[in-house]
Design a protein that fits this description.
It is a single chain. This protein is mostly helical. It has one domain. Helix content is about 60%, strand content about 0%. The protein is built from 3 helices and no strands. Helix 1 runs parallel beside helix 3. It is elongated, with a radius of gyration of 15 Å. About 10% of the residues are buried. About 10% of the residues have low confidence.
Length: about 100
């Protein structure tokens, strides 16, 4: 029988620290885009998505949200490096904000 911790998962450092690190990394990546409109759109979209989902208590939903955020971060970072994917064939970061 698996024993659940006495504290909720969102208060545990094993969850909180990686999430904050991912959040900061995504925001820093958004600020590295060339055009000011892209920077602002990505920055505020990512911030709003994280803020709207911060009260989520379902472990499965939270894990899915974090996986989506990591994928978005990889795609955005790849776009900064000049890589082309099927989603950014015309270098439009507005498509990539799916967090």
């Amino acid at each position: 029988m698996i024993r659940r911790p006495r504290r909720p998962f969102w208060t545990l450092d094993a969850h909180r620290i990686p999430v904050l690190s991912l959040y900061r990394t995504l925001l820093k990546t958004a600020k590295r885009f060339d055009k000011d409109i892209h920077k602002r759109f990505l920055y505020f979209s990512l911030r709003d998505k994280f803020r709207s989902r911060r009260h989520e208590t379902s472990l499965q939903k939270t894990a899915n949200y974090l996986k989506e955020a990591e994928e978005v971060g990889l795609v955005n970072f790849g776009m900064l490096k000049g890589r082309r994917t099927r989603n950014n064939s015309h270098y439009d970061p507005f498509i990539i904000v799916a967090v």
